[in-house]
Amino acid sequence: MKASGSPPSLQAGFIGLGAMGEWMARHLANRGFLTTVWNRTAQKSADLARELNLIQSASPSALAERVDVICLCVSADSDVLDLVQAIRPTLRPGQIVIDFSTVSRETALAAARLIRASGADFLDTPVTGGVEGARHATLAIMAGGEAATLERIQPLLEAVGSRLIHMGGVGMGQSAKAVNQVLCAGINQAVTEALAFGEHLGLDMDKLIEGISGGAAGNWFLDKRGATMTQGLFKPGFKLRLHHKDLGICQSMARQLNIELPLTDTTEQHYRALMAAGHGDEDISSLYRLKRPAA
Ligand code: NAP
What we know:
single chain, N-(1-d-carboxylethyl)-l-norvaline Dehydrogenase, domain 2, 51% helix, binds NADP nicotinamide-adenine-dinucleotide phosphate
């Protein structure tokens, strides 16, 4: 993404200061875009507002009244739609709502319909790159919506990401993100299965990871999560229950297309078992629990 060099002319508000949102909000504040925050758990927005000298809004609609760009980064489809309903009465022409959450294409289309009826515009801008990408502002952003709207907020997106791809109309960002999530499922399966195989073979796991990460099988997940998973550490990162939610979206899309996603189905079942055993808030690398040798 090339730097635009233009001074911040848009004022933004951020809703959803979770593992991803807090970092994104920090980068927007550092670049002078962010003025206002709201979070369901008010302590988080109070702390960040105090630290960064921002306004802590009393409600999502109070935030929407103050800013040009309303950024969302919340957990699931219903959260996005509830927030859109909450801010809708205060929206005005010229405002832009952008949603960094991972949700279905249908949710993006429904959000856009509601928001455009108020004269404002909507872009689905799901991200990939993990918490590390959020922390270092190196996220890849796959955007769906009007090109002119995307152009207006490009400087703001450059504050949180290093790659911005316009995928097409509203919902196409989420479609691209769904493809990404299927790929993440496969990579998780491959890395956890392979490393557990290595452990069964009695290999030194640190040496193994160092060796294979330099070759054709090297990948981001192996680099970032290989050592921790083999030590039994599963701090998120990307919460397993969130990826499980995403795989449900992918399965539903596949059903509509009448195609099969066997790797996604298997991973969804594995995650369901791990969630039932109380591991839903761990990192997705907790899949290793199902593969490693018994203690
Ligand atoms: P997280 O740490 O669990 O944070 C979720 C955020 O959403 C919190 O601020 C939470 O508020 C808020 N929230 C949840 N339900 C809400 C509701 N009904 N109304 C208002 N706010 C609500 O999740 P995350 O990892 O930041 O992920 C956020 C989104 O980004 C998800 O859609 C996820 O799939 C996607 N994503 C995550 C990653 C990753 O690696 N973590 C990468 C790419 C995309 P509270 O503080 O009150 O709980």
